Design the sequence.
């Protein structure tokens, strides 16, 4: 997409506003194509004894830089609101706040682009890291959010980070952050529990959960506390809808896109969902429709004896484990490819 002009074309023709990356995406790209062989070869020549982790970040940083440069006109045209690309800290640091801060700073320095977001998991352990990195003036994509309560904690960490920065007399301008709220996986986890009890609620709880998160977003970022920061140049931490492809083939392909459209939000889609929305997507302000119904649907879970917190806690644990496994697979595949290229 970078070298063939495909990314530039999407930006120009579709007004694409940003790109994300994660270990699974990189793993697929590196192992299923030869597109990265030359970059890997150069990294090996520069550092023959490099570990697979060092090789990955050398490769990823070049990729992210190149994409950031293509997106730079979007960043400039929107005064730094859009035009971002995200790079994730190592998933095996998800329970280590201090190590997350160190690696985020290292990646940020090596990338050396204003329109890059460092992706940090929304684990309880990493809440201090989110606050610290915002206080340091970094753009942060907070990922792996499933629960309303954890989202509110993340928004709190963002605001505290801004307050600390303001107290130091440092600028709050052009600090961008998104809270990546995962959607479809919530239905994937709840639907089996609802099959016998309330099949009419299947495929609806993930959207309800997201809509209530947006109501919290509006409340938090219209508060007097945030208004004081906004007066100094701060911007809201936007909600980003992640995991928006449908996991259930019986659901409409655009279920988690068309139902979550509203101001100051982002939707990140895999290519197939993106293409489907481009071809047949309906744009309408749907995010604030039927809020009362969404509240009733979430309340119904408790009445059925289903603890949403237990479910979302498990989803977070599985997400951290899945990202970690993808990262391990990626490093293993890079080591194998590096061995082949060296031979």
Sequence:
């Amino acid at each position: 997409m970078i070298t063939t002009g495909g990314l530039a074309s999407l930006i120009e023709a579709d007004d694409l506003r940003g790109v994300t990356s994660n270990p699974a995406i990189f793993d697929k790209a590196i192992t299923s194509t030869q597109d990265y062989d030359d970059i890997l070869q150069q990294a090996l020549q520069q550092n023959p004894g490099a570990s697979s982790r060092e090789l990955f970040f050398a490769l990823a940083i070049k990729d992210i830089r190149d994409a950031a440069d293509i997106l730079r006109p979007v960043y400039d045209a929107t005064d730094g609101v859009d035009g971002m690309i995200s790079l994730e800290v190592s998933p095996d640091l998800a329970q280590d706040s201090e190590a997350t801060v160190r690696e985020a700073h290292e990646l940020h320095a090596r990338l050396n682009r204003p329109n890059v977001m460092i992706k940090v998991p929304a684990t309880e352990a990493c809440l201090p890291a989110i606050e610290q990195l915002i206080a340091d003036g970094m753009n942060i994509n907070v990922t792996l959010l499933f629960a309303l309560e954890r989202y509110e904690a993340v928004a709190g960490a963002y605001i505290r980070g801004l307050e600390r920065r303001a107290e130091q007399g440092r600028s709050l301008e052009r600090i961008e952050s998104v809270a990546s709220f995962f959607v479809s996986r919530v239905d994937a986890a709840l639907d089996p529990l609802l099959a016998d009890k309330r099949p009419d609620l299947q495929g609806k709880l993930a959207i309800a959960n997201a809509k209530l998160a947006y109501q919290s977003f509006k409340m938090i970022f219209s508060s007097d506390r945030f208004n004081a920061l906004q007066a100094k140049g701060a911007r809201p931490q936007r909600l980003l809808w992640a995991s928006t492809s449908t996991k259930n083939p019986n659901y409409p392909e655009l279920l988690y896109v068309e139902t979550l459209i509203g101001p100051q939000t982002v939707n990140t889609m895999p290519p197939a969902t993106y293409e489907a929305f481009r071809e047949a997507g309906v744009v309408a302000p749907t995010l604030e429709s039927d809020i009362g119904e969404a509240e009733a649907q979430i309340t119904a879970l408790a009445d059925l004896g289903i603890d949403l917190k237990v479910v979302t806690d498990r989803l977070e644990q599985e997400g951290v484990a899945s990202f970690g496994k993808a990262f391990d697979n990626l490093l293993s595949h890079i080591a194998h490819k590096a061995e082949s290229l060296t031979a």
The first helix runs from residue 6 to 14. The longest strand covers residues 116-121.
